[in-house]
């Protein structure tokens, strides 16, 4: 089976879907001729022509607003926001329009679109190239929020997202574009080719939305993670020797609550990880649901390891990013507490 | 070194406030027939002057004059008159229904009937409007059932939007009427996207975007014009300048420094400015822009100069910010009266027939309302089921919504 980086897997998903469905159009800033600042759309314009893959003006509200119109017409737009940090001008179109179109028109009009956006930190991106705004999407009724952690899922989830009838926010942890990252910046970068989940089948396949994956089976504590933090969790479990069960949520809305409940009822403990800031982050929702559904099985308080409630700093990157050491301390605290 | 004096901020004010004498002297109105009619493939920069003029067909005597006279059959004009009168009668009835507590909210388009009613007649089946909340004429002009609109206003059991939307935020896909959003300006760039999709698909259908002059200040107006300028999709971008955005005069939206038609000049989009109370001018100018779109010549922006004769909404009292007599003083008059006069001048209409048609329309509206009320009003009678509240958030109801529905005991 071919091995791909996450960038190659995303590009392959777009290629597969553009070949398969003439309604699929791909656009965004620098997405066309140049192939994207992260190379995710390289070669697509040459292969499918400029009316299927094209550059847009620097206008996030224009990109998402036009995508809503195209989707209402009957196309399957896959729009790119260059960095999740720059989605805010398009937020009105996402929240007020794409998310609510089916509801407010009682199904007369729909918005089957995908908005791809690179997210997350760990790359010295500073305040505006590092954000994880997933909670700003999960709080919105009517959109699905997806975040892969490896090439295999990235391709399968993106194909599933394009085929989905609902609007999907597809967050791509850019720290994982070229290789897995376990939260140890001092270690040499590892390419995807050495990771089993870089094996991505050729052609069409999907990873269904709304299904979590168990990355490591364990009995001592359940770790809920997604994106880059899945790899950090794996490293922390290895380094501490804590027998953690690590769930990669993959889709935040709709959430695979069954998988979460099953695991927490087994382990009796839960640690929640995300790069995003803590207060009102998605971890708060996860914590509330675990508390509501697993209260009598819990043997310790639910812990959260997250980014701090500050803007994402530049120089203090590794004091901010919830790395393996911080996660490891939380794992120990959870099993000892 | 020049002396520095204290700076001061310019805050536009309308010429008059309540109690004052209405004054429209700042609005330069050319004579009917005076503005040239360029070919549809004209370059944008060759018609900049038309963005500062006003295209008009009907003169004071009620005659159709000049190069923009669409030379329509009198029967077509009578149908246009009927559509405008029906729209006004519908508005009056629904405003009354709101006052009677049969619904929570209503918005009239009084004085602006010509724009939507005439524009719609230049579109074809499959074309898509992206309207604001003040283009009910698009539906009424194509004889969309009044009862259907009323059921939406009453949020009753027959409301096709299942009681989810505020009154007047209609959706009627088969009538080419896109779901109206409460968020201003958003639909303008969606119209451009829809038109891009039609072009990408090699289709022949076109889109029409709608916005009020106040909402041109929203960033989506700019986004729409940039995208329309770049991709040249088949879209007609309508700006309805009715002089008022709730209580704010059009000068607060930037209308003091330039016309809204002139906004298009910087984007290289051909634009026209037209008398929005002149049914014939609206038909002719709409036809020009629609032809450009259909011939793949790209977008057109049209500023319709009109006046919002009624309150902004049923929750608004205009006497608190503008003279009560201002709408009577509006120099472009009333669209219904002007077309009526034209038909009388043509010798195909009379006061008697007009009165008779008015009575017929009022009867039709009343019957539609009776039928709608049989299906309930906001606080009385049948209403949409509570269970449907959870539907259509997503295509399939996800587990968390099923659980929440069960929590409500349904």
Can you describe this structure?
The complex is a heterodimer of chains A (337) and B (410). Chain A has twelve helices and twelve strands. By secondary structure, chain A is α/β, with parallel strands linked by helices. In chain A, helix 2 (44-48) links the parallel strand 1 and strand 2. Chain B has 410 residues and is α/β, with parallel strands linked by helices. Chain B has helices at residues 74-99, 113-120, 137-140, 146-154, 186-200, 219-231, 279-294, 326-329, 335-346, 351-374, 399-407; strands at 128-130, 207-212, 235-241, 244-245, 248-249, 271-275, 300-305. The mean pLDDT of chain B is 97. At the A-B interface, helix 3, helix 4 and helix 5 of A face helix 5 and helix 6 of B.
- Care to count the β-strands of chain B? 7
The low-confidence runs of chain A, each spanning 5 or more residues with pLDDT under 50, are: none
- Overall geometry of chain A: globular
Enumerate how many helices of chain B there are, as a single number.
Answer: 11
Strand order of the largest sheet of chain B: 1-2-3-7-6
> How is the largest sheet of chain A built, in terms of strand order?
2-1-3-4-6-5-10
Radius of gyration of chain A, rounded? 19 Å
Number of strands of chain A: 12
Number of domains of chain A: 2
């Amino acid at each position: 089976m071919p091995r791909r980086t996450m960038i190659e897997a995303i590009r392959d998903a777009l290629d597969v879907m553009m070949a398969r469905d003439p309604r699929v159009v791909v656009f965004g800033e620098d997405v066309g001729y140049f192939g994207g600042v992260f190379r995710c759309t390289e070669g697509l314009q040459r292969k499918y022509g400029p009316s299927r893959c094209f550059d847009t003006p620097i206008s996030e509200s224009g990109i998402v607003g036009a995508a809503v119109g195209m989707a209402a017409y009957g196309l399957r737009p896959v729009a790119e926001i260059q960095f999740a940090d720059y989605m805010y001008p398009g937020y009105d179109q996402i929240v007020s329009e794409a998310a609510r179109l089916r509801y407010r028109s009682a199904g007369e009009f729909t918005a089957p679109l995908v908005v791809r956006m690179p997210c997350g930190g760990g790359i010295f991106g500073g305040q505006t190239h590092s954000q994880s705004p997933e909670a700003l999407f999960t709080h919105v009724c009517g959109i699905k929020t997806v975040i892969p952690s490896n090439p295999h899922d990235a391709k399968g989830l993106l194909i599933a997202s394009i085929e989905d009838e609902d609007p999907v926010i597809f967050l791509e942890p850019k720290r994982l574009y070229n290789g897995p990252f376990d939260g140890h910046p001092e270690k040499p970068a590892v390419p995807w080719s050495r990771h089993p989940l870089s094996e991505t089948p050729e052609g069409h396949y999907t990873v269904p939305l709304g299904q979590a994956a168990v990355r490591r089976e364990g009995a001592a504590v359940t770790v809920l993670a997604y994106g880059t933090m899945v790899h950090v969790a794996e490293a922390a479990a290895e380094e501490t020797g804590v027998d953690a069960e690590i769930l990669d949520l993959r889709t935040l809305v709709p959430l695979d609550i069954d998988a979460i409940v099953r695991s927490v009822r087994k382990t009796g403990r839960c640690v929640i990880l995300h790069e995003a800031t803590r207060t009102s982050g998605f971890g708060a929702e996860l914590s509330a649901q675990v508390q509501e559904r697993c209260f009598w099985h819990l043997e310790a308080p639910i812990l959260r390891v997250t980014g701090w409630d500050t803007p994402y700093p530049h120089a203090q990157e590794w004091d901010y990013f919830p790395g393996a050491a911080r996660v490891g301390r939380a794992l120990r605290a959870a099993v000892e507490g | 070194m020049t002396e520095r004096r204290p700076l001061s901020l310019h805050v536009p004010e309308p010429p008059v406030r309540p109690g004052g004498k209405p004054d429209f002297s700042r609005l330069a109105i050319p004579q009917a027939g005076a503005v040239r009619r360029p070919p549809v493939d004209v370059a944008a920069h060759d018609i900049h002057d038309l963005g500062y003029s006003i295209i008009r067909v009907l003169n004071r005597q009620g005659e159709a004059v000049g190069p923009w006279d669409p030379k329509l059959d009198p029967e077509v004009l009578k149908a246009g008159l009927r559509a405008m009168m029906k729209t006004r009668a519908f508005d009056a009835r629904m405003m009354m229904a709101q006052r009677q507590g049969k619904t929570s909210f209503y918005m009239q388009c009084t004085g602006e009937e010509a724009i939507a009613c005439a524009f719609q007649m230049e579109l074809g089946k499959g074309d898509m409007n992206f309207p604001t909340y003040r283009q009910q004429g698009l539906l009424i002009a194509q004889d969309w059932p009044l009862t259907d609109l009323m059921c939406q206003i009453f949020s009753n059991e027959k409301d096709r939007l299942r009681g989810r939307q505020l009154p007047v935020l209609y959706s009627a896909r088969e009538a080419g009427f896109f779901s109206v959003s409460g968020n201003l300006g958003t639909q303008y760039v969606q119209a451009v996207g829809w038109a891009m999709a039609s072009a990408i698909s090699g289709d022949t259908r076109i889109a029409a975007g709608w916005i009020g002059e106040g909402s041109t200040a929203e960033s989506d107006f700019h986004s729409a014009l940039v995208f329309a300028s770049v991709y040249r999709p088949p879209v007609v971008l309508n700006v309805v300048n009715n002089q008022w955005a709730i209580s704010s005069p059009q000068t607060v939206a930037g209308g003091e420094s330039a016309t809204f038609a002139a906004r298009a000049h910087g984007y290289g989009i051909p634009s026209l400015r037209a008398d929005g109370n002149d049914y014939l001018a609206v038909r002719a100018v709409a036809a020009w822009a629609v032809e450009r779109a259909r011939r793949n010549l790209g977008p057109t922006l049209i500023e319709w100069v009109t006046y919002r004769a009624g309150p902004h909404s049923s929750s608004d009292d205009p006497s608190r910010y503008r003279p009560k007599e201002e709408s009577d003083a509006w120099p472009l008059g009333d669209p219904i009266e002007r077309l009526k006069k034209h038909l009388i001048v043509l010798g195909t209409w009379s006061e008697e027939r007009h009165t008779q048609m008015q009575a017929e329309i009022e009867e039709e509206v009343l019957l539609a309302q009776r039928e709608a009320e049989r299906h309930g009003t906001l606080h009385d009678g049948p209403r949409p089921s509570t269970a449907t509240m959870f539907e259509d958030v997503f295509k399939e109801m996800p587990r968390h919504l099923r659980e929440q529905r069960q929590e409500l005991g349904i």
